[in-house]
Each structure stands twice: as structure tokens, then as C-alpha cells.
Amino acid sequence: MMLASGPNWSRFFHADGIISLNSPQLTNTRVNDSMGLFYWTEGFVPIDVYWYVGVLVSITFTVGLFTRTSTVCLLLLIRSILSRNPYLANGEEMVMQMCLIYLMWTNLGASYSLDAWLRRRLGWKNPTSVAAWPIRMMQINVALVYGISLPYKFVQDPGWVTGDALHWTIASDMWGPSEYPWLTLALDGWIRKFLTFGTVFVEGLFPLAVWFRPTRRLAIVAIASLHIGIALLIPNVTYFTLSMVCCFAAFLNQDDFRLFDAMRTRIQLQCKELKSRLSMLAAKKTLRRA
Fold first, then answer.
1. Phi, then psi, of 255 in degrees rounded to 5
2. Helix ranges (DSSP H) in 171-212
3. How far apart are alpha carbons 208 and 16 in whole angstroms?
4. Which residues contact 155 (CB under 8 A, 6 or more apart)?
5. DSSP state of 24
6. Phi-psi region for residue 91, left (φ > 0), alpha (ψ -120 to 50) or beta?
7. What is the pLDDT tens value at each position of the chain, 290 positions in all?
8. Residues ≥6 apart with Cβ < 8 Å to 229
């Protein structure tokens, strides 16, 4: 998201950008409020500097280098973006802010990170446990997103009741690619009804089913698949939907990571076996030629 915002960064956040801070008619207190860094550094730290810092800390956060510092820096940056121009927020900044607030209170780089790798290389002991309450708070918040938003969909848009909501979204010039309206018109409209009611079912199921062992993985896979599908069909909300997919990692537990490790080990063994067979075939060909 930071990389994609680079070409428009000045237009979005400069004092003379989309919203001119020098305009005498600007009376909206939500714009450039004092909760952001841009407000306090106006005039002596160029706005463009924050983009370079944002790209850097996004990379260090992703790979887990100086993880806690990167988390706090990203939170301050996202908060500053929302404070300077809240009208540009499309949901993903709100999701990221929510996650970062919780994650800065736990040791996010305890295991799968460059921080953990460096500790092992230096002979330092890696932590054997981390604070669980920030992850639990994040889980509850994510579940509430669906528990609260789904009833609002029924109240604010009758298309969710009739099964037509996703047709208008996918065919929209604002949200969707607008070249796929045939997709939701095909089969006498049954596809759009399936997509709409399927979305309602998955979003209604997730905040309940994710807490129980027999249905937890199914709920995570279903909601993640839904958001990836939305990212493909409705590209103008891609960053929001992918941000939500990242949130679902909070619901993975130790059994899931053991399963991932077992799958990784199996794949590595199969790759070694395939490599060995290819080497044997190459050796046989060489012998035949000799």
C-alpha cells in the first residue's frame, strides 16, 4: 500500500494538495488534526520524507527486523495519514491502525522474524512465551467487525435482502472493475444471488464458528477465501480486503503452525526425492552416451 501511494503522496498529504491547509475556508477540524505527526512537523519535515520512512518501516515490519520499533513507527504513520486527510481512508488504514495498536503490546518478532534469527546467531535465548491478551483483543475486534457490520448491511442496503447487492458493487464504476456485469447477470441472476447470500452466510458464520475447534479452520478458510475473491472482483477495495486476510492469522494456534511445519518438511523431502531421481536419470543418460 505504501509503494502504491508513492506517485500520489504529495497530492494526498501536502499542505497544498487535494485539501489546501492554507485555504481560509477550511474549517473542518477532522483535517490535519493534532493527533498526527504531520501536524507537529509541518514546515520543517517535508511530507515526502514520511513516505520513504513508511516504505522502510513497512519492510522491516514485514521481515521482523526491530519488530516492536517498526510496529510503533507504522502505527504513528497510519495515524498521521488518517489525521491529515481522513477522506482518503478506505477501510484498510482503520484495520491496520486497530491491529498495530494491539500488536505493539506483544512480542511480534518472537519466532518467525529476522529478530529471532539474529538472536539465535548471536547465541541469545529466544522467548518461550509472549503476551496473549493483545492477540485475544485483536481476535475479538476482528469478530466484532463482522458481528456489527452484517446487520448494518441489511438495514442500509436492501440489495443484501434481495440478493442483488454484489451485482451493483461489481458493476459499479466506483468500486468494481465495471467490465464484469455479465458475471452477475448470467444464469438469470442466480450467480449474483449466490455471491450475495454466500457473502452473508460466511460473514455471519465467522464470528461464531471461529471460536470452536471443529469449525475454526473452516471458518478461517471460508472468510479468507471470501476476501481474496473480493480483492479479485472488486479491485478498488483490494487493500482493505487483504488487510482483513492478514488479521485472520491471529486466529491460528500452535496446532496450525505444527501442521505448516509438517507440510513444509514433507515438501522438502519430496523435493529432495525428486532431485535425487533427476540426478539418477541424468547419470543413466551419461552412462548410455559413454
1. -60, -40
2. 181-185, 190-209
3. 47
4. none
5. T
6. left
7. 899 889 999 888 888 888 777 776 666 667 888 888 888 988 889 999 999 999 999 999 999 999 999 999 999 999 999 888 888 877 888 899 999 999 999 988 888 899 999 998 888 888 888 888 999 999 999 999 999 988 988 888 888 888 888 777 777 666 665 555 666 676 777 888 888 899 999 999 999 999 999 999 999 999 999 999 888 877 778 888 999 999 999 999 888 888 888 998 899 898 888 888 888 887 777 777 76
8. none
Distance CA 184, CA 218 (A): 26
CA distance 261 to 233: 32
Phi, psi of 8 (to 5 degrees): -110, 10
Of 198, 149, 193, the C-alpha closest to 168 is 193
Residue 184 carries which side chain, given as an amino acid letter? T
Please state, in angstroms and rounded to a whole number, the distance separating the CA atoms of residues 224 and 231: 11
Beta bridge partners of 16: 20
Residue 38: phi and psi, rounded to 5, are -55, -35
Assigned C-alpha cell, 121? 546467531
Q: Which three cell numbers stand for residue 100?
A: 498495530
Q: Which three cell numbers stand for residue 69?
A: 520499533
